[in-house]
Design goal:
92 residues
């Protein structure tokens, strides 16, 4: 093992032992969902079918409504939200 691979292993170790939790989204978490979604749109705008400029303008009521229209989960490390995944079925 080289010195650089040992350093890389020691840097990765905390990620492997981190306490992660995945929780189903409920309406009371809409502010967290909004924050994560907007951060994702800023970070990787081409990965989503929307834009930060569009969604930052959404009223609070729409964020709450979106909780009813989909199934979503948030990943947390402690209190810090790390990301989300959402599945939805388009209207017939």
């Amino acid at each position: 093992m080289t010195e650089s691979s040992v350093a890389a292993d020691s840097e990765a170790a905390p990620l492997l032992s981190a306490s992660l939790a995945v929780v189903a989204v409920e309406p009371s978490l809409w502010r967290v969902v909004r924050g994560v979604r907007l951060a994702m749109l800023l970070d990787t705008p081409l990965a989503y079918g929307s834009t930060f400029a569009r969604e930052v303008a959404f009223p609070d009521e729409l964020w709450v409504q979106r909780m009813d229209d989909s199934h979503a989960w948030l990943a947390f490390e402690g209190e810090l939200p790390l990301g989300s995944v959402t599945s939805f079925r388009p209207p017939d």
